[in-house]
Structure formats: C-alpha cells, structure tokens
Amino acid sequence: MAKKSIASLQTGSKRLTKAIKMVKSEKTGAYTFVESIMAPNQVNDWFNKK
Q1: What proportion of the chain, given as a percentage, has pLDDT over 90?
Q2: Is the entire prediction scored with pTM above 0.85?
Q3: pLDDT at position 4 over 60
Q4: Are strands 14-24 and 2-11 parallel, antiparallel or unpaired?
Q5: What torsion do the CA atoms of 13, 3, 36, 31 make, to the nearest 10 degrees?
Q6: What are phi and psi of 8, to 5 degrees?
Q7: How far is 17 from 36, CA to CA, in rounded Å?
C-alpha cells in the first residue's frame, strides 16, 4: 500500500483533506486507487487501515 498524494481542500469554514491510496487486490494482484475526503486529523488512521 502506498500513498499517492494528499491535497488540502477548504470549503467554507471546514478544512478538509483529500487522501488517495493505492491498494493491491489479493485476488487479481491489480492495483486500484481509493479516494476519500476527511478531516486532516483522520488521515493517518485512514492510511494505516487495510
């Protein structure tokens, strides 16, 4: 699993972060990208989950 990029987004008064990680499928071996928009303090927990 690898980090691709993290971009900061601001919408109104909330600060959000878009996180993209590359996940390898155990069945086929192909890589896919999973994106999520969340609060900056949740990013490390999201990357550490499998």
Answers
A1: 34
A2: no
A3: no
A4: antiparallel
A5: 160
A6: -90, 135
A7: 8
